[in-house]
């Protein structure tokens, strides 16, 4: 009965505001399959929760992610 | 000094957009009481954080939750 | 299909090393009942995960919890 | 390669709706520096994710935070 | 720069005490590939953290997982 | 009333098995000060929880962290 939490930045997707429902469904299906294939975990008791995080709320390299990308580009 | 995180789908409640403030207050009170009753934890240092998750961001059975409900019904 | 994570300090219980299996079963039952009573969530898809945290890994008031308790006593 | 998650209530800041982008950038910089200073962790692989939580979704003392503040004031 | 947290029960694997290092490496590779395939996320900034949870600390159906399995079998 | 969770790999420190209690106390003090300085958050209601994660349970670049370090060195 795994629980998987995927945190990603809210960007990209059809309107630039985050992944589409189809993309998120692919993540859910893919992670659930992986846990079944590798560890034999049952899909019926596998939870996947996706959190989309605003760019200004995600830091890397000591900077908000957009500034970080500018800094390293 | 417990920390409790409750993740639920954003649905139901008075307008179908998630639990009401009253329902969330009941969850906060109930969990805090439980930790005091079972383990003697002080309410003043018990935190409860409720996350409401969009239906398309919650997966079970390898499917987003709404598709899962249709599939098993 | 709620997911609840309860974080508590690893202390107390029968041998001072954390809550007993019975106490943890009470937390699991109590939280699951609460979510069913308040929001009508089904127990079969309610997950509860308890994390026990070493005292030196939990801070409050800017201090590890044992030092904090000495400081305020 | 640390991962830091900071959860705060969504309040204060320039418009009362939460911390400003500048304040969040200060948190990101400060936590990243701290991990480098204390443990030698590289900023390039330090992630910081800030979650802003609605006041009615945060409980302390068995009450939603606004009611708690009234109760203790 | 995704962050993925996988929580599983500590069981199974070569000695019954949880998945092997090889199995965990498969989870890490699989999730990282999935995020690259579906959303174009770079592996170099994809973190995967696996938490193994003692059976008595995981509840489902209002029961610790071992009791739950007995109850439904 | 912030809640901060710091996840780091279990390595380094006095015996190679993770940061010392003193180092963890520095993290707790530093994060608490930062939240007070930047956002005016009270230390008495600031929780910091440190999770130390085994190297084989932390992935980056699609590999467990030790293999990743070998691969990029």
TrEMBL record, chains A, B, C, D, E, F:
Keywords per UniProt: Isomerase
Class of this enzyme: isomerase
Claim: Isomerase is one of the keywords in the record: yes
Membrane-spanning intervals of the chain: none
EC number: 5.3.2.-
Residues at the catalytic site: 2
Organism domain of life: Bacteria
4-oxalocrotonate tautomerase-like domain segment(s): 2-66
Name of the protein this chain belongs to: Tautomerase
Organism: Octadecabacter ascidiaceicola
